[in-house]
Design a protein that fits this description.
The complex is a heterodimer of chains A (262) and B (398). Chain A is α+β, with helices and mostly antiparallel strands. In chain A, 32% of the residues lie in helices and 13% in strands. Chain A contains seven helices and nine strands, in the order E-H-E-E-H-E-E-H-E-E-H-H-E-H-E-H. In chain A, the strands form four sheets. In chain A, strands 8-1-9 form a three-stranded mixed sheet. In chain A, strands 2-3 form a two-stranded antiparallel ribbon. In chain A, strand 4 and strand 5 form a beta hairpin. Chain A is elongated, with a radius of gyration of 27 Å. With 398 residues, chain B is mainly α. In chain B, helix 5 crosses helix 9. The longest helix of chain B has 31 residues. Chain B is globular and about 65 Å long. The two termini of chain B are 23 Å apart. Classes of the chains: A alpha+beta (262), B mainly alpha (398).
Chain lengths: 262, 398
Amino acid sequence: MTKKSNKLQYGFLIDASRCIDCRACMVACSVENNVSMKSTRIWINGTGVVGDFPNLSRYTAPFHCMHCEDPSCVSACTVGALSQDENGIVVYDDDRCIGCRYCMYACPFEVPNMDLTEQFPLIVKCDMCVARLDEGESEPACAATCPTDAIIFGEQEDMLAEAHRRMEEHPGRYVDRIYGEHENGGTSTYYISPVPFEELGFPLAQEEESPAHFNRLVTHGTPTLAAGVAIGMTGIYLTIKRQKEDDKNIDNPVHDEGNMEE
Amino acid sequence: MGAKIIRELRRLPLLAYILVVPTVLGLSVGAYRLYAGLGQTTHLSKVFPWGVWISFDLTTVALSGGAFTLAALVYIFHMHDLHPATRPTVLFGLLGYSAVLVILFFDLGRWDRFWHFLVYPNINSALFEVSWCIALYSTVLIFEFSPVVLEGKGFEKLLAVIKKLTIPMVIAGVTLSSMHQSSLGALFVIMSPRLHPLWYSMLLPAFFLFSSVAAGITLVISGSILSKWLFGQTLSQKVIEKLGWFLPWILGFYLALKLGELLVAEEVGLLFSSGKYSVLFLAELIIGAVIPIFLFSIKKIRMSSEGSLVSSLFVIAGIILNRFNTSWFAIEPINGVQYSPSWMEIAILIGVLSGVFLVFTLLAHYFPVFEETISVEKPVLKKGFLTYGEKVSNAAGD
């Protein structure tokens, strides 16, 4: 079902050991995409201050749409306002959205946002600055702005390779897990972190298979069910009708029509 | 002219006047919600984007399942002695779906684009399937109810065509119903990270379908007994007994399916170890299935009005709890954020519900909805259908 093409698949690598919580990415995103800072497409997850004085620590990481390989939101969206483009970007058509908010429940990463205080609210969600990329820029605003290169952007395979390279080059610096590699059936955003992802406040979407897969199993099963019900009902109707007519003919050989009503 | 209108208004049952007040208040709050936005009027949030309105929709659609169940029994399975119940049930279904559509309209962030589902399809979406089926099925219900409005007014040719199309339309209605009743369960299949594992299952579509059949039948039973008090009409106890006879079978199958799923998924332990969730889950099954299976198995209870009513109310309570659990109580909070509805959400709900009962009362007043139910004489349609209405208002104690 996933639209895998030969086209370039984009991806992010986000390194929590580099993030300094400056929030420049949030500002850059807000300016680039003209969204209010109240409901941004990118935000900072963190551990808060942990440990005992003087051994205190605090880790943060920017968080935005993971751009899943088989996105739940795309499967859920009633009107197809969310879709996956040929570069693996999960894009949003704000002219279609009806504001049903099903995607907000379907997304295991709690990504789709909505400023409910607006009279006509719309979904707020990262689209990898697709308009900016189309204009020929090499990376989205957040990655271009990040002063410590905590967010880097490029080809999906390169990002994964870079994650592995950093983990091998600095044994002990990162926990042994790349968040986003298997979550929700695989995504295009990879996180490496010195602390467990639960402590960073990341959602625990650990399914090896995207729920979108199971969703399709049942929604595609429905037409089959419908056909079964329609054929079955017609069959039962005709069978019982025939039987009743036969019974009647045995009792009373005169043909009686229209015994259905009343 | 003016005197005529006043005389007409005075003939209306008292219930209609009582219902006007909450209807007007609720719909005014609804108009404010459309103007002000969801944030100012509801307690919906990023963590809980769906609230009591969705739970209400799920419940109402389940309870309106009586219309398709009864249509199938009467027309497909040729159980014609159940026919007297079809008119009130189809009307109740029609009004139930209308309430759902109105509430959905208030629920949509972009209510100005409610029609988009008609032109922008996503065949993978359970909500898209639900929207289409409900829209089409409402049309079928209008069709099924239309003879009640058209009879005796010189539409004989049209009525003949409608009668010819009855069977195909009933089959379409049953098909559409089984589709959207199960699709409403399918809605939650994609929400595996949020829905508590006691409720989450790939079988959710089947759970929703079978429970809606049970809910529908019990609503027909309790509705006809309650309407005896409200409108002075009811089905014969023989018909009620026959309807009640189906329930142990349907509920038994439903219960076996629910528990069997937990066995297969190796989640039986959760039944007793999940705290609040265990209580909710067990309550829903004991109230909605175990107790009524026992009650409806006893012929003496099925033969008594009070017995049938109480047993039905158990099933209805269980199904309501099930739909609220699945869409609200068993949705696991994130970072401790909980949801409880605002007063405006409740006010809009009460307003829409009152409006629906108001329409029911008025239709029962003016049209032969209870035509074949016992304890009412054949309405005199030649002189004008209002004769019928007078009789009803007398019964309602006007």
